Amino acid sequence: MTVLALTSASGSPGVTTTALGLAFSWPRPVLLVEADPTGGSGILAGYFRGSREYDAGLIELALSPLDVLDALPDVARPIEGSTVSFITGARSHSQARGLRELWEPLSDALTQLESTGQDVIVDGGRLGLLGCPEPLLESADLTLLVTRTSLPALAAARSWADAVRRPEAGWRRPGVLMVGEGQPYRAREVTKVLGLPVVVRLPDDPQAAGVYHRGATPPRRFESGNYTRALRAGVESVQAIVTRSRLELTPEVAR
Questions:
Q1: Which CATH architecture group holds 3-249?
Q2: Which pLDDT belongs to residue 63?
Q3: For residue 20, which of 193, 202, 164, 176 has the smallest C-alpha distance?
Q4: 141-171 pLDDT, tens per residue?
Q5: Mean pLDDT computed over 172-197
């Protein structure tokens, strides 16, 4: 089982869009958790274009009398025609503040989904906000800082990258998800500036990203296009890193 978390240092780098795109490219059943503390569901308002009503989410999970792991099936909603399900986030930023006590037990519950054959992607929103789901970012197998490659974006990401590299930050394995390589900086330069490996590279393709961002009609050859192929390559890269890190942690069998 893999738990992947995405977060950002600045506004609008495409965390929710990318999280949903990766989920649809995932080869196994995957649960997408909207944990962005700014509130408002990017999936309901964006991908579903407001056609799907809110009926349950993290607030109901926090209020449930059941253990968090047992209550997860009651708030997870499937996306028909896919192996993706999702848990809707807070409806407003004021509600997000009340979720701070949920993050720790939820992080424990997500790591126990191995028996269901389900992986997890966490949309952690922007770092530094009140109600930031830090326990989810810390407990993930891989936590990726999503950034574009412009100078302002990298300047915003640099201070956070400096912080999360430190052992006391608690991130098990930090990395970078880069959007728009060559605009103007490339992966090698991004790694040098941030001191973190670039794990996933996505092209800056607003038309293709619009499918996940606002439920747009897929453009021609969407499934075989650069954006979709980059998402699939990103999933493979994530899974390879998680598998390798687990093998490194597995003690050698005594002979």
A1: 3-Layer(aba) Sandwich (3.40)
A2: 95
A3: 202
A4: 999 999 999 999 999 999 999 999 988 888 9
A5: 97
Which pair of structure tokens corresponds to residue 2? 């893999």
- Within 10 A of 87 (CB to CB), how many other CB atoms are there? 24
Per the DSSP assignment, residues forming a β-bridge with 31 are: 85, 120
Crossing angle, helix 15-25 and helix 226-249, to 10 degrees?
80
C-alpha closest to that of 8 among 183, 187, 133: 133
Q: Answer yes or no: is pLDDT of 98 > 70.
A: yes
Mean of all residue pLDDT scores within the chain: 93
DSSP string, the chain: --EEEEEESSS-S-HHHHHHHHHHH-SS-EEEEE--TT-S-HIIIIITTT-S----BHHHHHH-SS-HHHHHHHH-EE-TTSSEEEEB--SSHHHHHTTTTTHHHHHHHHTTGGGGT-EEEEEEEETTSTT--HHHHHHSSEEEEEEESSHHHHHHHHHHHHHHTSGGG--SSEEEEEESTTSS--HHHHHHHHSS-EEEEE---HHHHHHHHS-PPPPTTTTTSHHHHHHHHHHHHHHHHHHHHHHHHSPPPP-
The fraction of the chain above a pLDDT of 70, given in percent, is 98
**Residue 77 CB coordination number (10 Å):** 17
Q: What's the predicted TM-score (pTM) here?
A: 0.95
The closest of 90, 78, 86, 135 to 111, measured between CA atoms, is 135
What value does the mean pLDDT take over residues 179-201? 97
Backbone angles phi, psi at 147, to 5 degrees: -150, 150
